[in-house]
Amino acid sequence: MALHEALIALQTGCSGLLTLKQDDPHFKKRFPTIPYIHQGELEILDRLTQIGRHYRTLDEYVQNILKNKTSGLYILSFAFELRSILQSYLHCLSQLEHECLQNTSLTLSHLTVALTDYTLLFPALVSLINTLQSTGYRGCQILDIIRRSTLDGNTILSSTIKKLLCACHRILIKQITSILTQGQIYDEYGEFFIGLNNNINVEAMGMTTPSISRMTSTVASRSHSPDRERQSVLQTPQPNSLITPGYSQYQLIPEMLPSYIPLQLADKILFIGESWLLLKNNDDDDNDRKFLLLNPIDYDEQNHLVQQQLYALTLSDDLNMFELERIIEHARIDLSLTLRNLFVDRFHLIDELEQIRGFYLIERGELYTLFVNRTNQLLLNTKKSTNAIENDINEVFKQCLNDLHLETILTNADKFKFKLNFPHSDTTAQEISGARRLLSRTQGLTDNSNTPFDFWSCGWANLSIQYRVKYPMKAFFSENCKQRYNDIFHLLIILRYVQNELNSLWLAFKNKNKNSLIWHLRNSMSFFIDNFQYYIQIDVLEYKYQQLIRSILSSTDFQQIKHLHELFLADIQTHSFMLLSTAYQSIKNILSICVSFCLTIKQQENTINNLDENILRQFGKEFNDEIRLLFGILGMVQKHNALPHLGVFLTRLDFNRFLTNNNGSFGEF
Amino acid sequence: MPSEIITLQLGQCGNQIGMEFWRQLCAEHGISPEGKLEPFATEGSDRKDVFFYQADDQHYIPRAVLLDLEPRVIDGIMKSPYRHLYNPENVYISKDGGGAGNNWAQGFYQGEKLYEEIFDIIDREADNGDSLEGFVLCHSIAGGTGSGMGSNILEKLNDRFPKKLIQTYSVFPMTNEVADVVVQPYNSVLTLKRLTENADCTVVLDNTALNRIATERLKKATPTLAELNQLVSTIMSGSTSTLRYPGYMNNDLISLISSLIPTPRLHFLISAYTPLTSDNTESEVRKTTVLDVMRRLLQPKNVMVTTAARDRNVTHCYVSILNIIQGDVDPSEVHKSLMRIRERKLADFIPWGPASIQVALSKKSPYITTQHRVSGLMLANHTGISSLFDRICEHFDKLIKREAFVENFRRLPMFKDNLDEFNDSREVVQQLMDEYRAATTKDYINFGSAQMGQTEQT
């Protein structure tokens, strides 16, 4: 009789004798004493009832999942596996029932013993599904939770949960296979750790750490439009089935990534997926499809192999991470080689870099010399951006290209456009105070305008290049890269402008040997600017560029090439002190002092004899102060050996040890 | 076609140098003697437009003006294969063809007389370009035409184009006792005054040093005039190579000049080139590295001016140095070389301001095969140049003391009444030498202001 009750209780969690209220967590409601049952047996019954209760909870959960189609593949797979566990439990029960019928002398203890495994297992499973339900995790997120539960000393428990995990892994492997072999994401419910990036402003492929690299860029970049920030916020993937995107790209969804899959591995998978997108998405050029055919690697066979290998992975209980990594790395190497060949040989990556060097890195010096000469006043007087001014600038630039017969060399001119990006709000007062201070003094003399001139708000300091990248190259030049190129360009163009101004001062005064203080000051400034320019353009830029080209040509790995390119940009920024904010600020101050000096002198060109010598001395003093500060900072940095190239710059500046001997100043002014 | 440069070739020497210069430029740019672009040179990324312009039939024409008072040298050019290269309108030979007779005053006077005709040519040539950057004048300062007419043209150019650069390549005469022209010191000092006051940059080519280099470096017992001129044209083409083969920097004349010349009067530059080769001798330099090249450039024996390292208790020093390195160069080599030069103290610099060896990397012409991987040109501002002026002045003083050979000068308007111009010029040169000497001391920075005080008082 008790056995019968117990068997019912085991299935339903309640029986006529043992009433358990569904909503009572402690389910102590039973007849306190049943006369013909021993108190001990009652206790056993309670325990069995508890198993039954757990069974019901689990069963309900499974039924719920199966009924409800929206919970996602992972949970569904989990539920299926759970159901088979429950079925084995039921099977066990029916066997027990059979035994009971055959042998009526069996005691309750027999049941307890037979179900020992489940007394352990069920509470764990219940707590697992409770966690799953309470956290609301989906997809890959549940993998972590399940995996945590496998880490249990009890072998039965851990092996059962491993089975559950394995069921989920089957889904994961299927998704990985899909992206690995076709570059498609089969992800109806948004469960995979790679999703579609629907931003218009797509990053280059493989850009998985945008936040870090953007950080490095922001130090120097002046204006970060708020919408750019907004765009880079990761979007949650849209539930689309079988996505074959056009110009959009994949991105990693960090919160979906299980902790035991290394980020590098996820990156590789992402990279492979994006590579496939790239390879398949040659709708604008039929030749490229032919290129795929020409490729020595037989992708069908390759894919077949990958599929098989991955399938083999799902057969074992434990997911073999090493094997997975090996397979993925293998696939990555193959694809990366293909892409490298595609980019270097077909898309002419080197030529593209040459173009970029020509425009952003001012390789054709004569072009920018001419450009600066022609737009010098226009940009100086520009305070806000209008289409007309931008058009003018671009027209002038085109004319310069034309006049220098550079159309055949800088062929991509139509892709590059000058933009004026004035910050929306006022620049930090701190940054401009130096220049303002200097110029306000001269304002007293001239009374030309009421507002003091501020170099950092004029066109020269806010000129940038907009570079339209064609589709395949987008994979190489990310927005982040472009921003960095612009940051470098920003410095280079200002240097060139200041140099040009100092040179024109030379010309203006060549026949007026009146005030030699002007000459000495001009000379010192020019010395600094020339040497700084040489340092950046040759010691850093040209050197690194040659390195980059060499390693691109010798590399067989597209990802590595990309990495080298990122490194190249980072190196340039580091070595031009953009990331050393105090030094960079100091350099900027020096630049604006030079500009103020040139403009002041120019204004007074005809009445130069009346120019107050104190103004010149003040310029000299401020210039010297800044130089001393910079020299001090750089000296300290060098002591710590932080920048290997720094010595080159300091040697140039201090070649005749004048700075050292004069306590870091350029002379007495 | 911006930053064009017009070359003015004056007198016998100037035209000979100029001729060599254009021959070199044509070879470097793949332009045939007739001015046609060679078929192999159509794809170049060089800039031909600084020194050439294109005629209606696409022929390249040098922006050159050839001037002389006697027809011999220019006639020679007009008989050479290069006769069709030049614009015939730009070739001007004085109609009386008598030359200046090695007389500065005669040259100056002729220049005055022919002013309109000459400046018609120069103006036309200047209007020909979009934005003229400056003039390059080649001449010698010893003879009559180059020195006298050159002086006149310098004054006029400066007056007419005050914002344009005027660079000269001036050949200085041998300063040994036996001069082929007795009035050489007069001519030189009179020209030096104009070079000081009216030129923006003078590259001094000392005939003594040129001969020495040709003898020693090229192993020639008696170097021919053509070989000496070739040396000069090597310097000229080398120093303009960053304009013609543009890279990151130094793409205009002003940027070259302004970094070398800190104050307007200290504008006399010395030059050196290595490795030197001539057509029929094997060069003794086998291997070239950047360090080798930069080191050799600093050796006095390679410098095309003979200067004394010390005189009158003055230790001379470099005001500025620009090395133009041509060829296949790794930027890091440059730095290593600089470090080495600094460690070894191979160059002394001014004590009154920052100074260093500026380096400009330049491409080589793809159409000329050279034996050497790297070659280098140095343009430097060295205070030791004053010792050259000193020697000239020494000879000048000897002559003027006894008013020797002044009759020819008295015959011309400038010296009809008195010889003040001689003293005046001598004074200017003396001031120049003083300034150079002052530049070796720490308080040169105040030299200018002291002088300014003087001029204000006067």
Layout of helices and strands, plus pairs?
The complex is a heterodimer of chains A (669) and B (458).
Chain A: H1 2-12, H2 39-67, H3 73-102, H4 108-114, H5 116-135, H6 140-150, H7 155-181, E1 194-197, H8 210-218, H9 226-232, E2 249-252, H10 263-280, H11 286-294, H12 299-315, H13 321-346, H14 349-359, H15 365-381, H16 387-403, E3 416-420, H17 429-446, E4 463-467, H18 471-474, H19 479-509, H20 516-554, H21 558-575, H22 581-603, H23 613-639, H24 646-653, H25 658-661
Antiparallel strand pairs in A: 1-2, 3-4
Chain B: E1 2-10, H1 11-29, E2 52-54, E3 60-62, E4 64-68, H2 72-79, E5 91-93, H3 104-113, H4 115-128, E6 131-140, H5 145-160, E7 165-172, H6 184-198, E8 201-206, H7 207-216, H8 225-239, H9 241-244, H10 253-260, E9 268-274, H11 290-298, E10 310-311, E11 314-315, E12 318-327, H12 331-344, E13 357-362, E14 374-382, H13 385-401, H14 407-410, H15 413-416, H16 420-438, H17 447-457
Parallel strand pairs in B: 1-4, 1-6, 4-5, 6-7, 7-8, 8-9, 12-13
Antiparallel strand pairs in B: 2-3, 9-14, 10-11, 12-14
Helix pairs in contact in B: 1-2, 1-5, 1-8, 3-5, 5-6, 6-13, 6-16, 7-8, 11-12, 13-16
Structural account:
Chain A: Belongs to the TUBGCP family. The complex is a heterodimer of chains A (669) and B (458). Chain A has a domain at 349-361 and 476-654: Gamma-tubulin complex, C-terminal domain (Four Helix Bundle (Hemerythrin (Met), subunit A), Up-down Bundle), CATH 1.20.120. Helix content of chain A is 65%, strand content 3%. Chain A contains 25 helices and four strands. Chain A has helices at residues 2-12, 39-67, 73-102, 108-114, 116-135, 140-150, 155-181, 210-218, 226-232, 263-280, 286-294, 299-315, 321-346, 349-359, 365-381, 387-403, 429-446, 471-474, 479-509, 516-554, 558-575, 581-603, 613-639, 646-653, 658-661; strands at 194-197, 249-252, 416-420, 463-467. Chain B is of the alpha/beta class and 458 residues long. Helix content of chain B is 43%, strand content 18%. In chain B, a hairpin with a 2-residue loop joins strand 10 (310-311) and strand 11 (314-315). Chain B is globular and about 60 Å long. In chain B, 55% of the residues are buried. The chains are: A mainly alpha (669), B alpha/beta (458). The interface between A and B is large, with 60 and 58 residues.
